[in-house]
Structures are given as structure tokens and as C-alpha cells.
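Figure 6 in text form: structure in, sequence out.
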């Protein structure tokens, strides 16, 4: 697939994905719980809980099955991207269906809280949670970090710094997910700028060195797996580890100067029809059983004392940039426009 050197103009990552979410009404087979303003618990069996999640799909399915076996509560799930989950919530605002929302972007949790949609709740493991939102409105059950994903057959000397990707040996070999389509890519841009005096010099140098942007994260990774490109800038780490575990010739490095670590929030909606089961589900995600499932999918755990697993870098080995997530959320549309203008 041919890569492109321009972003799609005029597309806000929030607005574009919200609009896409409206198309999804009715897709959730079997998930149409009866709308109700009252918080009721389904009387059949252990009841049910409706979860809207940004995945990963395999992880979401495993968590749902394990929770259902443990509690007898049926999990009805809609799985998509963060933007499409937000879009579905907007489309259903008059008749809320979801109890629990899981997102892949920490700033999206802040966004829903500021819309007045979240139900403050402190799960049993709240004191051991690594990342917590204000007032118990959301908490991270896992996290991912961004790095430089590279093809091990094509890159024998991995880049040590972000700036390495502007060197001649990486000319025309670097791919970045499209910030208009990838929440993590726009988080990288925002985090980088916040920690480099808001200077766009690095991105100008990338353009001069022939860096390209293309599609969401999975599509960018595929280009490196196949050897069409050598490197993904701002690659999502758990995806690289999962590909490597399948035997693909990829690995990932985290520049020592720092990177974005993006906690993945879980929250309960104020309008949750099955509030009691929503609380049970959030508690399960942060329990040892839930966290063991998280680390098997190569994500960072969200609870202290849970090892990250032997096949990925632990949080302690990744230098984190300080990120003002509220500021980043406010600036997302502008950041996409900036990179569009620069790389277009």
C-alpha cells in the first residue's frame, strides 16, 4: 500500500471520529439494554453489564469471559476505537446504554469527566492504582508506551534517539501513524512539543528526511513488518511485542530522552443502567486476576506490585515525559492541523 506524505486536511481527531461513531448505531448485536434513567440491576442470573471498550479486542474478549465466569454477570460489549466509542456515546446520549467505558487515551477520560458524564467511584485497588483521575472519576487499568518500532532484518543498529530518525541512514524509511487517525500519534506530537519548548524543528527535519505518515497504528506497523518501511515513529509498544511474539521481525526501543506513556482509563457512566455490576467490573479489571490478563497482552499493568511480564520492558525502564493531558486534549485539533500544514 502506498504511503502518503500529507495528512487529510481539516480533520480534527475528535470531530472526525465522533462523526464516524454515529454510523455505528445498531451495530452492537445483542447489546440493546432497555434504556432507563433509574439504575437497575438485571434480575436474571447475575445480571448484565454493558461495556464499551477501545480494546485491544483480544484483551477485551478475555477480560469479559473471565469476569463472566467469576461473577455470573453477563458482559455485553461494543469494541471499537476510542473515537468511535465516544461517537456512540454521543449518539446514544438521549437513551444511554453503556455502564462502563474503557478508552485507549487518558485525555479522553478527562474529556468525559468534564462533560459531566462520569460517576465518581473508587475501586478496591484505588490506593494501589498507578494512575488515577481526579475525584475517582476514572482510573487506569493498563497503559502503553510509544517508542521506535523497527524491522530487525533492515535495521541492524537501532536508533538511540528520536533525532536519529532525521539522519541520512533513515532517509525515506520512517513511517508515522497519521495523527488524524491515530490518537496515540497525536498524543506523541503533543507530548513531544510540551517537552521540547513547543518547537516543531524535529518534525521539519523529519519531513526533510522523507518521513511519511499513513493510517492508524496497525497499518503503520504492517508496513514495517513487511519491510516496505524500516521504522515506525511513535509505535505503540504492546502491538510491537505482540507481533514479535508471533515471529515477526520487529522490535521496539524507547529513546532515553523520554516518551509518552499513555494510561488507558476505565470509568463508570453517571447514567449507568446497571451500576452495581459496573462497579464489579471495574473492580475486576484492577484485581490480580484482571491484571494478569492485561500483562499477557503485553500492556503495562495499572496496579502497583503486578510485574509487567518477561517479554516487555517494565515501566521503571521507560523514561516518561511529563504530559499535561488536559492541555493536550484542548489542543488536539490544532496539533493535527499543525502537522498537516508542516508535512503536507
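Output sequence:
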Amino acid at each position: 500500500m502506498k504511503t502518503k506524505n500529507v495528512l487529510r486536511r481539516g480533520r480534527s481527531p475528535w470531530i472526525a471520529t465522533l462523526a464516524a461513531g454515529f454510523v455505528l448505531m445498531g451495530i452492537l448485536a445483542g447489546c440493546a439494554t432497555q434504556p432507563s434513567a433509574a439504575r437497575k440491576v438485571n434480575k436474571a442470573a447475575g445480571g448484565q453489564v454493558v461495556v464499551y471498550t477501545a480494546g485491544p479486542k483480544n484483551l477485551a474478549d478475555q477480560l469479559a469471559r473471565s469476569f463472566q465466569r467469576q461473577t455470573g454477570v453477563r458482559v455485553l460489549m461494543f469494541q471499537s476505537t476510542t473515537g468511535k466509542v465516544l461517537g456512540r456515546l454521543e449518539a446514544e446520549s438521549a437513551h444511554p446504554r453503556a455502564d462502563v467505558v474503557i478508552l485507549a487515551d487518558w485525555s479522553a477520560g478527562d474529556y468525559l469527566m468534564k462533560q459531566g458524564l462520569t460517576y465518581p467511584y473508587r475501586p478496591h485497588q484505588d490506593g494501589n492504582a498507578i494512575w488515577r483521575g481526579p475525584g475517582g472519576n476514572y482510573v487506569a487499568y493498563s497503559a502503553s508506551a510509544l517508542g521506535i518500532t523497527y524491522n530487525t532484518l533492515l535495521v541492524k543498529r537501532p536508533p538511540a534517539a528520536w533525532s536519529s530518525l532525521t539522519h541520512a541512514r533513515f532517509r525515506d524509511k520512517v513511517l508515522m501513524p497519521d495523527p488524524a487517525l491515530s490518537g496515540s500519534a497525536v498524543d506523541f506530537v503533543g507530548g513531544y512539543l510540551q517537552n521540547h519548548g513547543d518547537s516543531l524543528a524535529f518534525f521539519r527535519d523529519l519531513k526533510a528526511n522523507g518521513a511519511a505518515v499513513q493510517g492508524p497504528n496497525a497499518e503503520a506497523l504492517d508496513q514495517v513488518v513487511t519491510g516496505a518501511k524500516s521504522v515506525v515513529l511513535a509505535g505503540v509498544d504492546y502491538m510491537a511485542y505482540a507481533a514479535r511474539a508471533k515471529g515477526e521481525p520487529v522490535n521496539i526501543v524507547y529513546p532515553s530522552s523520554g516518551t509518552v506513556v499513555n494510561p488507558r482509563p476505565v470509568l463508570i457512566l453517571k447514567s449507568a443502567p446497571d451500576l452495581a455490576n459496573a462497579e464489579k467490573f471495574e473492580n475486576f479489571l484492577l484485581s490480580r486476576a484482571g491484571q494478569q490478563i492485561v500483562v499477557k497482552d503485553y500492556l503495562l499493568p495499572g496496579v502497583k506490585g503486578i510485574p509487567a511480564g518477561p517479554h516487555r520492558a517494565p515501566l521503571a525502564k521507560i523514561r516518561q515525559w511529563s504530559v499535561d493531558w488536559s492541555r493536550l486534549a484542548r489542543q488536539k485539533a490544532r496539533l493535527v492541523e499543525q502537522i498537516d500544514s508542516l508535512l503536507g
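Caption detail: The chain has a mean pLDDT of 88.
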